[in-house]
Write a structure and sequence with these properties.
Strand order of the largest sheet: 1-2
Pfam family, one: DUF433
InterPro entries: DUF433, Homeodomain-like_sf, WH-like_DNA-bd_sf
Strand content: 5-15%
Helix content: 10-25%
CATH architecture of one domain: Orthogonal Bundle
CATH topology of one domain: Arc Repressor Mutant, subunit A
CATH class of one domain: Mainly Alpha
Radius of gyration: 13 Å
Largest sheet: 2 strands, antiparallel
Order of helices and strands: EEHH
Shape: globular
Number of strands: 2
Distance between the termini: 34 Å
Number of helices: 2
């Protein structure tokens, strides 16, 4: 089952946001803009004992900025 989220459901989602929701990218799962790295991956990483630098090393397409 696919879910398509309308932009009006995310009124705070701006063009300069670091998060992107697009039904054409990862079936609409929130990802870091310009990548296919799900935001949930970052959330899961932050819940582990690993250093944040390990996340960025593992996902070089995600900018620290």
């Amino acid at each position: 089952m696919k879910f398509f989220w309308a932009q009006e459901e995310f009124p705070d989602m701006r063009e300069d946001s670091v998060i992107s929701v697009n039904p054409e990218v990862m079936s609409g799962i929130p990802v870091f803009r310009g990548t296919r790295v799900p935001l949930q991956t970052f959330v899961d990483h932050m819940g582990s004992d690993e250093d944040i630098r390990d996340f960025f090393d593992g996902f070089p397409t995600v900018s620290r900025e």
